[in-house]
Amino acid sequence: MDNLINIKGVRHAYHTATGPLPVLDGLDVQVPEGGFVAVVGPSGCGKSTLTRLIAGLLIPDEGTVQVHGSRITGPRSNVGMAFQNPVLLEWRTILENVMLPLEIVPTKLSKAEGQARARKLLALVGLEGFEAKRPSELSGGMKQRASLCRALIHKPEVLILDEPFGALDAFTREDLWQTMHKVKAEEPFTGVLITHDLRESIFLADQVVVLSGRPARTQFVMDIPGTGLRTLDDLYTPVAAERLNVLRHQIEVAQGRVPAAAVGPDLPEGPGRPANETVTGPLS
Amino acid sequence: MKSRQILVPLAAVAIFLILWEALVLVMGWPNYKMASPSDLIPAYEKYWSLFLVMGWQTLWRTIVGLVLAVIFGVALGMVMGFSRTMRDALYPLLVGFNAVPKATVVPIVALMFVGWHDFNTVLIAFIISFFPIAVSVSIGLSTLEPEYRDILRSLGASQSQVFWKIALPKTLPEFFGALKVAVTLAFIGTNLMEIVSPHGRGLGALFDSGKTNSDYPLMFAVLIALAFLGIVLYYVVVALEKIFAGWADRTV
Ligand SMILES: Nc1ncnc2c1ncn2[C@@H]1O[C@H](COP(=O)(O)OP(=O)(O)OP(=O)(O)O)[C@@H](O)[C@H]1O
Ligand SMILES: [Mg+2]
């Protein structure tokens, strides 16, 4: 079992003014090398907290977070992050923004090579010709594309995306989904995608993890076979509809709106499984 | 475009002076009530060398006070911006300090360091002007969205890298906004001290001597000279802002 990211039995609580706030309790997530896992769950259940654990920005109270078999004890330079807020720096051009990580992480690239790589990435996401522009001159979708390039410039082992398309309109979002497939084909990465869009999760990822309400544990895991390029039409097939149904039910369970058993038996033979049955077999 | 930017303000000044002259003429005010621009010219002619010397005194002391205020204000702002505890501890103190009318502090400082006129003046310019700088820097740093920090921290960046690459540049627009206020305040501080101190120097002292000798045109001439210096200082800050934080200006 060669998992690049291995999260086991993680428990974590924030210390707030009103006492400890348990956020994660019994979290298990495995991502194999080259895998792309989408994490969905009710709002405020602890998804962003999970990304901070993987990035090493937060150390869990209990349990382990391993990347490449070694336990994470702090930030390392081999992750790339992108958020819902693109956080581009207004005093830099788009090209300089994309190159920012190269100023922090040790890199073998010369300045010119770094620039060439940044230009290549920008072209890959369709931002050719915008290298010298300022962030404020770009639309929301373009900013997200630039932010994605910045997350990839230093060839991170792990790409962490926290609702990167959450603030975009539906058309722009679907555009970016297709861009993501293109990027994944050209610049292979191991990724964790936080999202609240179930269609997005089954379109992009090869595994969807549903978290329960706060404190979050891994409630349900669904494999999406057939990785590689998908088309938007794939979202309108009966198989996709069934997957979305199962996931929607799981979200409702996670939100506590329906008990797990109430609707369960009525569902068709689904492709998913409760988390605690097969936590160690992520991809078939 | 360029010439318009210069001509329009000049024309505004000319119109202002004409209206002033006309007002004094029409109302028939004697020059001890209100001097007119034409009264000022002889005053400048008579005392031009004094104006240069005193103006320089006022200018350098204001600038030194301001530079100290920037150094101290930025340092204090950094401490309060990065540490919640320090912010909670220092904020009430600072606000209380700032609430004290500075006109009451001036005589105290003047007595405390009597005879050290340069030191006194610089000190007041500093005391009066560091507050807005400290507050703006601390607010700029403490309101930095966590994502900005995380982008760099997740790459293993140090606190100082986060500060230099993101926090500081991001705070510059607020900093310059505060500096514009601070410039004016420092200038007021310098002048208060120059006026209050016995045997003071600088434009404030010149103003005071005008008062003592009932030389009213001189007093008005000093006011105008102060206004001129204030404008120069202000636009120096504006120029610096254009250079270092011009990116924040989104008006096209
Ligand atoms: N630094 C913090 N200190 C205290 N509490 C926090 C902190 N960060 C997050 N929380 C709390 O922890 C819980 C989980 O936060 P988190 O941001 O991980 O949720 P999320 O699943 O990403 O939410 P959303 O779907 O809205 O993005 C929330 O209730 C939040 O209020
Ligand atoms: Mg979140």
Q: Any key phrases for this structure?
A:
heterodimer; A: 284 residues; alpha/beta; 8 helices; 11 strands; 30% helix; 25% strand; globular; B: 252 residues; mainly alpha; MetI-like fold; binds adenosine-5'-triphosphate; binds magnesium ion; cell membrane (chain B); transmembrane (chain B); transport (chain B); membrane (chain B)
In a nutshell, what does this entry contain?
Chain A: One of its GO terms (molecular function) is ATP binding. Chain A: InterPro entries: AAA+_ATPase, ABC_transporter-like_ATP-bd, ABC_transporter-like_CS, ABC_transporter_ATP-bind, P-loop_NTPase. The complex is a heterodimer of chains A (284) and B (252). Chain A has 284 residues and is α/β, with parallel strands linked by helices.
How many DSSP H or I helices of chain A?
A: 8
Q: Provide the list of bound ligands, each named once.
A: adenosine-5'-triphosphate, magnesium ion
Q: What is the domain tally of chain B?
A: 2
What is the strand tally of chain B?
A: 0
Strand content of chain A: 15-25%
Q: pLDDT below 50 for ≥5 consecutive residues: which ranges of chain A?
A: 262-270, 277-284
Oligomerization state of this entry? heterodimer
N-to-C terminal Cα separation of chain B, in Å? 14 Å
Q: Taking Cα atoms only, what radius of gyration of chain A do you get, to the nearest Å?
A: 19 Å
Number of strands of chain A: 11
